[in-house]
Amino acid sequence: MVAKLTRAERQFALILLGLMALCGLVMAAGANDDLFALHGGLILAVAVGLSFLVISGLDAPEPPPERLAEYYDAPSRVAIVLTMGWALFGLAVGDWVAWMLAYPHLTVDAAWASFGRIRPMHTTGVIFGFGGNALIATSFHVVQRTCRTRLAGQFSPWFVLLGYNLFCLLAVSGYPLGITQSKEYAEPEWYVDLWLCVVWVTYLVLYLRTLAQRREPHIYVANWYYLAFIVVVAMLHIVNNIAMPVAWNHSRAYSAFAGVQDAMTQWWYGHNAVAFFLTAGFLGMMYYYLPVRAQRPIFSYRMSIISFWGITFMYMWAGSHHLHYTALPHWVQTLGMTFSLVLLVPSWGSAANALLTLNGAWHRVRDDATLRFMMVAAIFYGLTTFEGSFMAIRAVNSLSHYTDWTIGHVHAGALGWVAFISFGALYSLTPALWGRQRMHSAWAVEAHFWLALAGTLIYVFSMWNSGVIQGLMWRTYDSGGTLAYSFIDTVVAMHPYYIARAVGGALFLAGAGIGAWNVWMTIRSPDTVSQPAGGDRPLTILAGE
Amino acid sequence: MPETGHALTLLFAKGFGLFYLLALSVGTLIYAFWPGSGKRFDHAAKSVLRGEDQP
Q1: Residues of B whose CB is below 8 A from A309
Q2: Do residues A459 and A411 touch, judged by C-beta distance below 8 A?
Q3: Is the domain defined by A64-542 classed in CATH 1.20.210.10?
Q4: Domain segments of chain A: what residues?
Q5: Nearest partner of A308 among A222, A388, A233, A376, judged by Cα
Q6: Each residue's pLDDT tens digit, A233-266
Q7: In the A/B pair of chains, how many CB contacts fall below 8 A?
């Protein structure tokens, strides 16, 4: 990876890493609290480690100038490996949390192992670690192929990828120590947030510059979704994390918002994180890899555009459905509920578009587990968005909210949609980027598919059962007008479903383990196929410029 | 004066918010169904299939 950079770029990398090491040193030495010092030390260690990597390649020969006429896939390759690593970590921690809920003594009486600290390690690991790296890997690949041009930077893709993973590492290492600002899916503290801000703006500039250099007149719709993901996540991240640190050398900060404004800002962020991190980006993935894998153009390009604008502008208003029956003004709750219902139209537009694209290629779906991953993803996308709109109705929410139904809903989306489309895309991308004809083992892709599907179904059905039972028990009154069940009665009733959920999670984790092995073996296996001349290159070469 | 703030926000959301989203929907539909755009969209939809990611 260092050998692909010019000498000047390697020196620039060393200067940046030197600044980063200095920053870590100042944080560690001047810290006002031990946690801040620990994070300073971690930043210092990462900077020193990366410096060794750069120094070891500092005297490598200059890369040939012809490389600029080729696609720049090295960052995507590293991102794929990181994606699988984070998948294993995030899913393993998630299953640990699941067993802990069934058998609470698994907290081993240690503060760091309590549910409140382990659970965000799971959510950050899977959403930002696994999902984020999958989005970076595929967005770099898709933007180059659809624009028929090379990434508009040599160093910045590495800065984005490694900087983003440093963010994930700081976040996940902070939780067991107790560093959190207690905002769901936005737990990292102010200094980690500032760092992500720098990384994200670099990502946006890189993406926009690559789009500007495109050699196709029209920007393919997948890029619209990826760009919406990048732009809106920047917006959400900055606004929701406005905070005042206790001191420059202290890990704690206080939010600029308070009370119901804080709640509304948080759920405007939280729901749009689902919309733009977990939906828009992955729709971008679907709109590229599904047609390519099925070898059929998307069923209706017009519908993909209408769905895009529908999702982009209506999701913004749906967040308040997380705050039904709270101090939030009633009309704001109704607004969120209404927009959530209307959202079904563009959501089903995309789900139907994907399935109708496959209509006529069902033999491929039957034979090709990779395409089957994408088909199941489209089904779960349709299912989950319907369920989401339904649960946003205030009366339904009165039963579902605060119960495991929400957990079931989220995992139908996260496992069935996000993870399935990601694995489908990765199984398409990995052989292509390493010049292999296919994945190392087709049998392993099948095994992964069925384990993941079984795991998802067990997980979702157990949480649906558990959630509805829980919700009904909470609202059952006896003839005297008092609640029929105590809280602990509901906990006992949920126990069998918690075990089932943990088993489902274990199956899903086992599938991902097979997937990681398969990706690794594909990378290691020697079967290289020569690319057809002029096939996989930016358009300059084809045009003979 | 928090009461005025709330009333103004309400007016903005129910007035401007409604019309801007209606205008946006109409604009999107016009863009998507503009008679001349069909060929461009067909080209775009097929453009991704030239690639190398064949099974």
Answers
A1: 24-25, 28
A2: yes
A3: yes
A4: 64-542
A5: A222
A6: 999 999 999 999 999 999 999 999 999 999 999 9
A7: 80
